[in-house]
C-alpha cells in the first residue's frame, strides 16, 4: 500500500516461543491488556470480532490486498474497535481537541502470520490522520532484511529498531511503566520451563544476545507508518506517535512472555471464548469503573 510522507519505522521483537505459541499468546494478552486499560468511561469498546474471507460482507474486508513475505492472505479474523481516550493523550492535544474528538477507530485484519491494523479518527481528523501497522511473525531471529517487501525508495527511508524484551534500561522501559511481574529477567514460565531471560546488557534499539541462541525463537516484524496533517503540529505528533508505539510494543511483549503460563496449551477455541467474555467485561468496566492503565507520557 502507498506510504504517507514522513518516517517509516520497522520494529523487530524476538520472543522465546514458536510462531504458533505466539498466535495464542498474543490474542490472550490483547484481551487481558484491554481489561487493564478500560474503566471510568475510557478504554476499549469491541464492535466486531468475526472471521472474514473473500465472501464476507464488504465491511469485513480490507480495502487493499493483504500481502506480505511473497504471499497474499485472504482469510482470518476481523476486529473493529473504538478506543475512548482522554487521559491517554498528551495534555497539549487535550487542550486543542474538541469534545468527543478523542475517540480512535481501530480496524484489524488478522490473517496470521500476517496482520494489518489501521487506526483512524473518522469523527474529527478524517483523512488527515492514520496509523498503519503491518505485522509479520516469522520463525527467525529478526534477521530477515525485507520481510514487508518495501521498494528501494521505501527501504532508503526505513529505520530498523530492535526491541529487546529483557532490556530494563530507562530508555527501554520507563520508571512509571516498570513492574517486576512483567520483567522477563525475573519471571520463569513453569509450564514451558523458559526464563528468566538473561540480563546481557544489550544496547537500546539493538537485538539482545539471548535471542541469538535461544530455542525456540520467533520474531514480530512491525512496520509502522504515520500520517498527521495539522499545520504546526505534524512533526510533533508524528514523533510522539512513533515514541508511543515503541512504548506499547515494548510493554506488551514483555507481558506476553511473563503471562505465558496463563495461555500455554490453550486452543483457538479457548481464545474465542475468552474474547467473548472479555467483551462483556469491558462494556461493564467502561460504564462504571474508574480510569485505569497507561497514562500518556508528555512530550
TrEMBL record:
One Gene Ontology term of the molecular function aspect: phosphatidylcholine transporter activity
Question: Where does the record place the region Disordered?
Answer: 187-210, 279-299
Q: Return the GO cellular component terms, semicolon-separated.
A: cytoplasm
One family name in Pfam for this protein: IP_trans
Annotated Gene3D superfamilies: 3.30.530.20
Could you identify this protein by its name? Phosphatidylinositol transfer protein N-terminal domain-containing protein
Native organism: Littorina saxatilis
Q: What residues does the Phosphatidylinositol transfer protein N-terminal domain cover?
A: 8-279
Which domain of life does this protein belong to?
A: Eukaryota
Amino acid at each position: 500500500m502507498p506510504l504517507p510522507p514522513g518516517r517509516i519505522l520497522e520494529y523487530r521483537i524476538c520472543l522465546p516461543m514458536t510462531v504458533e505459541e505466539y498466535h495464542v499468546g498474543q490474542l490472550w494478552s490483547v484481551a487481558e491488556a484491554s481489561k487493564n486499560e478500560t474503566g471510568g468511561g475510557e478504554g476499549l469498546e469491541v464492535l466486531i470480532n468475526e472471521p472474514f474471507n473473500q465472501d464476507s460482507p464488504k465491511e469485513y474486508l480490507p480495502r487493499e490486498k493483504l500481502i506480505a513475505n511473497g504471499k497474499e492472505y485472504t482469510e482470518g479474523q476481523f476486529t473493529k474497535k473504538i478506543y475512548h481516550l482522554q487521559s491517554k493523550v498528551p495534555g497539549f492535544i487535550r487542550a486543542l481537541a474538541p469534545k468527543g474528538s478523542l475517540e480512535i477507530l481501530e480496524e484489524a485484519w488478522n490473517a496470521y502470520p500476517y496482520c494489518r491494523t489501521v487506526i483512524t479518527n473518522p469523527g474529527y481528523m478524517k483523512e488527515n490522520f492514520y496509523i498503519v501497522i503491518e505485522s509479520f511473525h516469522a520463525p527467525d531471529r529478526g534477521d530477515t532484511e525485507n520481510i514487508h517487501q518495501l521498494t528501494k525508495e521505501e527501504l532508503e527511508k526505513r529505520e530498523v529498531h530492535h526491541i529487546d524484551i529483557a532490556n530494563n534500561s530507562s530508555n527501554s522501559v520507563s520508571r512509571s511503566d516498570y513492574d517486576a511481574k512483567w520483567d522477563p529477567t525475573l519471571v520463569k514460565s513453569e509450564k514451558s520451563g523458559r526464563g528468566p531471560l538473561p540480563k546481557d546488557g544489550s544496547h537500546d534499539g539493538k537485538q539482545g544476545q539471548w535471542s541469538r541462541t535461544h530455542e525456540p525463537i520467533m520474531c514480530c516484524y512491525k512496520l509502522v507508518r504515520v500520517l498527521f496533517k495539522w499545520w504546526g503540529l505534524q512533526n510533533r505528533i508524528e514523533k510522539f506517535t512513533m515514541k508511543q508505539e515503541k512504548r506499547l510494543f515494548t510493554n506488551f511483549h514483555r507481558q506476553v512472555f511473563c503471562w505465558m503460563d496463563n495461555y500455554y496449551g490453550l486452543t483457538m477455541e479457548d481464545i474465542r471464548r475468552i474474547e467473548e467474555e472479555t467483551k462483556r467485561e469491558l462494556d461493564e468496566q467502561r460504564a462504571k469503573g474508574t480510569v485505569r492503565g497507561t497514562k500518556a507520557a508528555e512530550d
